Amino acid sequence: MNIGEVARTSGVSAKMIRHYESIGLIRASSRTQAGYRQYQARDAHLLRFIRRARDLGFSLGQIRHLLSLWDDPARASADVKRLAAAHIADLDARIAALTDMRATLMTLAQACHGDHRPDCPILQGLAEPPSAS
Asked: Relative to the CA of 77, which of 17, 67, 104, 129 has its CA 20 to 30 Å away?
């Protein structure tokens, strides 16, 4: 497959495929005599794995670790689960932070009259130092 075909098959753009090669996340593709990249079905499978991991919010470093575990037939599933659990904890923390941000902004927006007057609780709230939570 050429890069366009593997991009369509995997759902990863050609630009990202080249990027993943440049950072060593995937091995460099073989080339034709004309210099075109050539990929195998396994490359498309690997790229789908990466895309799915990215869709779930894993960082490139975490994906690199997941790939090493995936390629290791002697891996312990506990290692994979530990990585997933750490990612879940990070997601939970980010969700809590976003929930707090939303609640604060909702409070400020509800306090704003949204009329022609210049006083604005939203701007006043943004100008205040953050509360110690």
From this structure: 17
- pLDDT of the residue at 132: 62
- Look at residue 100 and give its three-state secondary structure: helix
Say what percent of the chain tops pLDDT 70: 98
**Residue 58: both structure tokens together:** 């894993």
Question: The CATH number of 1-75 is which of 3.30.230.10, 1.10.1660.10, 1.10.3720.10, 1.10.630.10?
Answer: 1.10.1660.10
CA distances from 46 to 20, 41, 85 (A): 11, 9, 22
Sign of CA dihedral 94, 98, 101, 103: negative
Q: Cα 82 to the chain's mean position, in Å?
A: 18
**CA–CA separation, 6 and 20 (whole Å):** 13
What is the distance of C-alpha 30 from the center of its chain? 27
